[in-house]
Amino acid sequence: MQFARRFCIAAACALSLLLSSSAAQAQQTKLLPNDTEMIVTFNVQQILKSELLKGDQAKVIVEMAKAKINDGLDDKGIAKWFKQADFDLFQDLHSVTFAIPGGRDPEEGFIVLEGKFDADKIEAAATEASKQAGGGLKVIRIAKVKAFEVSPKDEKKMYVGVLNKKTMIACATKADFAEAVDRLNGEKAPNYKSAVFKGLLETVNNKQSISFVATSDMLAKLAEKAPEGAGGAQAAQAIALLKQLDGISTAVTIQKNIDFQLGVNTKDNETASKYAGLGNILIGAAKVKIGDEAKKNEKLVPAMEILNSIRVTAQGSNLVVRGQISLETLEKLLKDLPIPND
Q1: Are 121 and 85 in contact (CB under 8 A)?
Q2: How far apart are CA 319 and CA 305, in angstroms?
Q3: What is the DSSP string of 175-219?
Q4: Contact, 316 vs 202, CB < 8 A?
Q5: Nearest to 128 by CA among 71, 92, 77
Q6: Other CB atoms closer than 10 Å to residue 17's CB: what's the count?
Q7: What does the pLDDT average to over 247-251?
């Protein structure tokens, strides 16, 4: 996504990228613009501290990933600015939320970074980084808060700022920046224009590792903007399906096991309750069918274990499907996956 790429450029110049701590509260949705219709949140510290990643094999993979990322930061000349800002990406980063507005250019996105911030060190490092990069950064004030106006070459301006010791934002307009400051200070309350988006937000929380919420209108809009190619027919089918829904949410929580969920917005509470009952009946029937087959084919046992964990509930007007994959079940699934010889 172009906006995310521009943010990375801005972060390199402003050195305001991803400074946070595990003490921060995740998912500052109250800071998002009122016309937001899609968010993706990565709760990084929750993932890194999960039981699942404490095993010996997982630790090796995590350390390899960290080394690869650190090498990349060093090669791009960003690591030295992190060091000057006294910032450790893996110890300090807590969560990142990407948001996309509805009714305007998706490029006018909004990013919330949560954690521990030293505004003075960030400004000093950002200023020096900008000088070495040939400019492109200017310190301004928006809503009485110091902000970086970042103007990467051949890119639109962005506004990045530390709102307090735990919160940093990056956005495409001064208006979005100012409104976020007002909401953080309690001078304005969040008032999402989309009732669907507002309702689906209730299905996700700050304890989840990765969460996603979007209206179907936003997803269809993004799908229509996707480049044409071999998947054109599939994209058209996806758009047609999305237009039959109001919105969806998904979430994955990595702990000792992996919890997953899918939420769909229905027209009212009664409809959600009706479909929840029907969903549990269908799952019960599937358990009987697959259970019989699993007695004959042990490769179906992992699927049965997952199916046994699935529950369908109504949460207001939302239909929510939840389930769990244990580490043992995951290992069985990976063992049975076909691996190409070449």
Answers
A1: yes
A2: 22
A3: HHHHHHHHHHTTSS----S-HHHHHHHTT--TTSSEEEEEEHHHH
A4: yes
A5: 77
A6: 26
A7: 94
Furthest CA-CA distance within the chain: 69
What are the CB-based long-range contacts (under 8 Å, 24+) for 234-242?
A: 242/216
User: Side-chain half-sphere of 58: how many Cα atoms within 13 Å?
Assistant: 14
Rounded distance between C-alpha atoms, residue 132 and residue 312, angstroms: 55
Domain limits, the chain: 2-211, 266-336
pLDDT per residue over 54-98, tens digit each? 777 677 777 888 788 877 777 767 777 777 776 677 777 788 999
Cα 255–Cα 261–Cα 267 angle in degrees, nearest 5: 155
Task: Let me know the angle formed at the C-alpha of 223 by 222 and 227, rounded to the nearest 5 degrees.
Answer: 100
Three-state SS at 258: strand
- What is the SS3 assignment for 277-292? HHHHHHHHHHHHHHHH
**Among all chains, which residue has been given the structure tokens 């996105």?**
109
Please report where in the chains the tokens 């890119």 appear, as a residue. Answer: 155
DSSP letter, residue 310: -
Amino acid letter, 18: L
* Structural contact between residues 326 and 332, judged by C-beta atoms closer than 8 angstroms: no
